[in-house]
Structures
1.
Amino acid sequence: MRKLVLLGAGYGNMRILLRLLNKELPADLEITLIDRTPFHSLKTEFYALAAGTAPDSDIRVALPAHEKLKVVEGEIAEIKLEDKTIALKNGEEVKYDELVIGLGCEDNYHDVPGAAEYTSSIQTIGQSRATYKLLQGLGGGATVGIVGAGLSGIELASELRESRPDLKIKLFDRGPRILKDFPERLSNYVKDWFDKHEVEVISNSNITKVEENVLYNHEDEIHVDAVVWTAGIQPVAIARELDVEKNRGRIVLNQYHQIPGHESAYVVGDIADLPHAPSAQLAEEQAEQIVRVLRLVWNKEPLPKEMPEIKLKGFMGSLGKKQGFAYLADRTVTGRIARLLKSGVLWMYKWHNG
């Protein structure tokens, strides 16, 4: 029996399952999905779970049921590329013929002292649940610091403002303006929303140290009641520990999304070294190409000399439940329309994934 093993039930591997299980598969193929949870988590919506504006049930999607799919719930201890074996922490080992590693990322604290110990996270559904309990347990007038004004930090700050209008929210942005790599109109729209809703944006910030209930911005001490870290990501430790070529911690791949020297192992999503910033959209586009390559391999057909360039459509973000912003095909969209677009994309994703 030929074994395809998928590590992680993230966006990339969910797209692979969606494409593979809807079409005829080799009769001798068995697919095994390994994840710590028995469901797919909508990571792009963890900010809403943490802020208390979306229930846990809205953030989960059931894994597909199929006669050729086996789901293993467990923690991965080691990826043994030489032996084509996955070791689980419970002592079990899973052999593979082809492997897709889609284990995602974790917070990058950039060696800031105290950041790992004294900040909360929204990188996993478990961490987001814990952050929700912390934030909702704060008393009126408490101060929440959100370190990092990328998409996650912006969406968390705006949703938290809607769920807890009694809190003081400080959003620390390392750049001179929010979303500095995008048109100024987009930045101004988001900043105006925060000004109107009394979210303090601290530009040109540099968090140098974190202590319990204290943030150090440059040399300034800022007292807070809770801190959420959204200031960067890195591949999970298991991926970082692999003895393969990496670039900035991410695994270098060939054009077929395979690990050079271990061509039976593919990498999808945040841990892959690609010329785009990590995103759910990027993982899904990459997954489409991996499925194409797998089918050619299984059919013993030659691989194309070149794979198509991955092109992304842009991004969308929310500002609470009524407003949003988007950058699509080099065009800026703001307001209610942008929020409806994001809600529609989320609905379609859930629909396609059952």
2.
Amino acid sequence: MKFLSVLIPLALLSSQTVHAANWYFLRWNTPSSSAQFQKFSMQMVTPTIQKAGVYYLWPGLQDTGNTGVYQEVLDGRSGTWWIGPGWCCSNPSLPWGDGFNPGNGKAVDITMTRDASGPNWTSILTSGSNSVTNKFPLSYKNFNQVMNTTQTAWCTNAPENYNNAMRYTISGAKATVSGGTTTCQIDQVVMEGPR
């Protein structure tokens, strides 16, 4: 399906001579291209990083035109985690936002909100005493999550598991409808590792 709601991938890239990429992600596909994301929020617990490597983990929103991903990227290249928001990888070319080092096993609260009367999406990342807020001029992009629809199966059905490569568990998926808008809440998604 071409419409993405939530994209939660894990990319593992080898830093050895052979440069291979392994992609593992779950994707929730929405039922309508006219629906608009308004807000995406979650709490992500950072895994323990064993050693420096090209590890990336990010929750994100992809637009219906497949021109890029608005994402909060957890980066492990230095041997410790760093997290920050950004738009990758084309149309438009935007700088990455500010971030911080959350540490192993730390909860990071993530909120991405479409500004009601402006051109921006606002990202807020918080973990303990660390907090950053960044704005990205992406309100013209068509992301699909909190939707003007009364359909709920996109939320409560199992997500697409790219190449059926990820072992995962999901608990507490539920959808509520109010005033023509569907809100999806998932209590927990645990990405356990490759199959």
